[in-house]
Amino acid sequence: MTIEHTPAPARTDVRRPAAAHHTPTRPFYKRGMLITIGAVAWGIDSLVLGSDPSGSFEEALSSLTSGTFQLGLLGLLTVLFATNALGDGRLARFFIRFEAVLLFLAIGSTVVDGIGVSDLDKTGWVLLDMFWPLSMLGMFFIGIRIAVAGRWHGKARFWPLIAESWGPIVVPTFGIFGSSVAGVVSFVHLCVGYGVLGQIVARKEG
Question: Which UniProt keywords apply (predicted)?
């Protein structure tokens, strides 16, 4: 007698369990690294060339490094927005959007300086150039708000204020001591401030 074993037909009415979706433990890693890279690159540029580059090559190099830094700041703003670092009210979100507009215009100033088409003897170009210090001043107020809001904890709560005090510290240094001294101060401040802040953001888990 022959016994045949016929395998049972595959069930088509049973769904396979969906693959588990793992939320990245460090969702802001790339943006944090961009902040650090941009800050250190611009800091080195400030140290070597000073805070007032001259000549087309120096201007282009400075625009490249400072532009990378500005892109890092835009990335920082997206992190602040996603984590409600300034608070969850409409005013807090509006201020982040407003700062993003200032930064976009500052980046525009950086680009036209880098390609050599700006002319600071003309009012329009001067006004565009003013968005650079205005955007940095806006970041300073954001740093204050992060500390006050207390949504970020530990070093993350107060380090943005340290980093974003670049404008109030470096700009007067340039006016008082000149480009060379301001370049050294800018380098130290960028590495200690935004360089470290980038690593804090990169390690932030949400």
Answer: Membrane, Transmembrane, Transmembrane helix
